[in-house]
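Students often ask why we bother encoding 3D structure as a string. The short answer is that it lets us treat folding as translation between two languages. Here is a chain of 312 residues written in the first language.
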Amino acid sequence: MTKDTVPPAMTTDAKSLIKRARSFAKPFRVTNGRAFRLKDIDPTDTLDLSEEAKPRAQEALALGVDVLAQLQDKLYAQDRWSVLLIFQAMDAAGKDGAIKHVMSGVNPQGCQVFSFKSPSSEDLDHDYLWRCMKCLPERGRIGIFNRSYYEETLAVRVHPEFLASQKLPPRLVTKDVWKQRFEDIRDFEQYLAHNGVVVLKFFLHVSKKEQKKRFLERIENPAKNWKFSANDAKEREFWNDYMDAYEDTIRNTATKDAPWYVVPADNKWFTRVVVAAAVITALDELELAYPEVGKEQQAALAAAKQALLASK
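And here it is in the second language, the structure alphabet:
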């Protein structure tokens, strides 16, 4: 949908879904990390939905995609807010699938996706936020980070050699480096919030058992071989270190302005429902609306209409 099209009115079903979305997203929302413990989130959790409810959940997701498209169109037309969605997870947790399914109905003009791999030599010649800062979404758009600056308190923490390659002056690399990075990130995200950027962060929490199952499927299915690399399996050796790093990161960077959603990821269908619910809830809370046309512009539109009707 573009700015030139007439938007559909929001149906009763859509309004009902927005109301229900809050109940799906709220249990997994973390805004104050002090009491957060990763062990309290079960990767297999589906709230009160059983496997038999999967078809209904998928129908709700399809409706949610439509609702999200309508909200995103208003976001784009209003051109005041922007939204940044950050996805973090262990390998095979379903980040790509969640992004693909939840954002499938969104107008490509109003959405930007960036995947952050290992930093380049140019990246390493700048501060660690630089490569992500230059990809922030413009007003009216949704930006998606598939991994992000949070790798700096996750992978870089688990692998000290990554920190050593960042060319920092030695006297700056102290025992307080992670505390300082948490402070930097909190300040940065508060700055974004003060400038109309809504930040939502998702940790797709998959179990080690489920990850193993998905890795084996990637190896055994020729159509999925391309998704697997030997390094994926090697990183499993650091599982507990990663879980500690995720917990500490979420505890130190979950705020009201930039909440974390710790989403159970062993059931992909449920993961996608929760992600969609969180995004829909956040957009609905912005009270988005299409720009009002003033009297002068209305008169110009009326004149243009008359000219068109009078022409051959």
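Translate back mentally: Strands lie at 29-30, 82-89, 111-115, 142-146, 197-205, 260-264. Keep this in mind for the problem set.
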